[in-house]
Design a protein that fits this description.
By secondary structure, the chain is an all-alpha fold. The protein has one domain (about 5-150). The protein contains 6 helices and 2 strands, in the order αααααββα. The chain has helices at about 5-20, 35-50, 55-60, 70-85, 85-105, 130-150, and strands spanning about 110, 120. The chain has a two-stranded antiparallel sheet. Helix 1 crosses helix 5, helix 1 runs parallel beside helix 6 (about 130-150) and helix 4 (about 70-85) runs antiparallel to helix 5. The longest helix has 20 residues, at about 130-150.
Length: about 150
């Protein structure tokens, strides 16, 4: 998936979380310091987490879709942050897991059993293709639905 698709997934996740917490998307956040203080860290965690697994493209240490696309570390960190109620880390890890989940629908796939093992993918989405545009439309539709009904 392209960076824009992952970023959009993080934005929709942040929007859903804020709506679930009773703070639907509203321009009033920019004039209400308490709401902004709650909304900004949540949105930042989701947006950064949604693109974080692709840091391996910049670092070029292990190769693309190896260590940073292996779900167990993010899953463990999400569970621990949920136990100790650390929302920003939980949202960051959740967004990273969403990134990995979306990448699992591409031909390249993601590692399941070990970070350097065989990658598995559903091969339903071609990166940059029509199928990814359909994913973007679905994300936009869900985001607008959250905004409208929250």
């Amino acid at each position: 998936m392209m960076k824009a698709t992952h970023t959009l997934s993080g934005a929709v996740m942040a929007q859903g979380y804020l709506a679930w917490m009773g703070l639907p998307m509203d321009p009033a956040y920019f004039t209400n310091p308490k709401a902004l203080a709650f909304a900004f860290p949540a949105a930042a965690a989701c947006l950064i987490g949604s693109t974080f697994p692709d840091i391996d493209i910049k670092l070029k240490i292990f190769g693309h879709r190896t260590v940073t696309h292996w779900f167990p570390p993010f899953l463990i960190a999400a569970f621990v942050s949920w136990l100790y109620f650390i929302p920003s880390i939980f949202l960051f890890c959740g967004a990273a897991l969403l990134h990995i989940f979306l990448d699992a629908f591409t031909k390249m796939g993601v590692p399941i059993l070990s970070p350097f093992g065989k990658r598995y993918g559903f091969c339903w989405v071609v990166t940059g293709g029509t199928s990814e545009i359909l994913v973007v439309i679905a994300l936009l539709s869900s985001g607008l639905g959250i905004w409208h009904f929250a």
